[in-house]
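Inputs:
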Amino acid sequence: MNEQLQPLKKQPRAGKAGRSGTQDDIVYAHIFEAILEQRLAPGTKLSEEALGEIFGVSRTIIRRALSRLAHEGVVLLRPNRGAVVASPSVEEARQVFMARRLVERAITELAVQHATAEQIADLRQMVNDERDSFSRGDRGAGIRLSGEFHLKLAEAAKNAPLISFQRSLVSQTSLIIAQYESGNRSHCSYDEHTQLIDAIEARDATLAVDLMMHHMDHIDSKLNLDEESASDDLHAVFSHLLQTKKPGRPTAKL
Amino acid sequence: MNEQLQPLKKQPRAGKAGRSGTQDDIVYAHIFEAILEQRLAPGTKLSEEALGEIFGVSRTIIRRALSRLAHEGVVLLRPNRGAVVASPSVEEARQVFMARRLVERAITELAVQHATAEQIADLRQMVNDERDSFSRGDRGAGIRLSGEFHLKLAEAAKNAPLISFQRSLVSQTSLIIAQYESGNRSHCSYDEHTQLIDAIEARDATLAVDLMMHHMDHIDSKLNLDEESASDDLHAVFSHLLQTKKPGRPTAKL
DNA sequence: CCACCCGCCATTGTGTACAATCGCGGTGTT
DNA sequence: AACACCGCGATTGTACACAATGGCGGGTGG
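Outputs:
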């Protein structure tokens, strides 16, 4: 249980208060990234003390980060029993996807109305980054970036509550993808993202929404959400009950 | 430093094992209620130490409660400068209402499909409570209960992310109503709620959604969201900037 | 031999002390 | 007289110490 996550020591105050500055955000971002990259498997226990030692901060900071992660649904906080990486059930995954369809449709319509040229340029840049990550074979970064694409799109919709909800949904989706994806394909195929941007730039709401809905279809058609997950995978089936024994072992390959 | 917070007096410390849950929940609920009842005006500073003394708990607990309130959007947390009661701008209010239309439509459709007889009975009970509150003249409780009605409806939709989002939206809506309502009328007219329940019980999705959308229309038609808020009301206009000078003064009557 | 009970240990929950930060008011200079 | 700078007080941010809770294993009785 010594440092596997060595890199992060306390940053001198170089970062300014606005952005990645505070320690909370650093810890949050690192844990989140580790979960997406599956360095932390679903069900893994997240001990406050261990994390505090790893990041060189006190439990107070860790606790805040975990609380935030819990609110976004990627970590489960069990009273008196510590935090574990969430392991969404198939039913939970379905609920998340249903909500996402709803939100993505609205976001797309609003983005068509409100997206600025600069935002569209940013979106294109993000798709490039995403493609690069996948071509580098960096699956975790790819999943994260494709999530950030959808989040950026939400920003273009100019509706703060929707952005916040979308952040939570994207986080959970990323976790679900990391957990359930039948690893044969790219996740959010970036060409779908490109087409979507084109439709938004052309201010074609009907087309954009249509593309987005198909995009959603593609995403969950790539997942193994259809009750097949029972066979080789007792761990995943019960991982929401266990508090995890040995984090060292990558429970299941799927 | 003058106690206008005293209605929430400190629970004798022996009884801190409140049935309604952990101390956090108690503090959270009390502050939330105080905000809705406008005992805490928008912009009022929420000092951790003062609150801690009032509730007889340490700043740790207060901090968690404030953090939760901040996440739901009824409290604004300014780094190094403390927490204040949120004062949603007209634009923010519009965004909340737009998001609510979206979510309420989806919730209504889902509730028509999934609501159980027991849930419908619960809903009717809540409408009764709501009516009682208004007839008692307890405006704050009325606003809160009508919010809880919509939240209960969300539970009937059986979609966890939507429930969580709805909780946040309802909280903010309640704050907006408390802030902007032209006090001449009941807020969520409870007969609209009753009709809605009837439609859901009859499993008439079209009617239910229609009623819900009209209900939304009625709610924001009762608000003064149409830029009239500029005249008598410098305080409200800038309250998101100030940290509040004297909480003793009920900034504006509206 | 198995099951139940009890006490120990690990981990989280809470309170509190201390450090850092920000706003504000006093003071000096132009 | 007005502006700017500096030190002070108040309040939040962080760390840590202690209390409480729950799990787990040893031990004992049936």
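Remarks. Confidence is low (pLDDT under 50) at residues 1-19, 242-254 of chain B. Residues 22-23, 57-61, 79-81, 243 of chain B lie near DNA strand C (CB under 10 Å from a C1').
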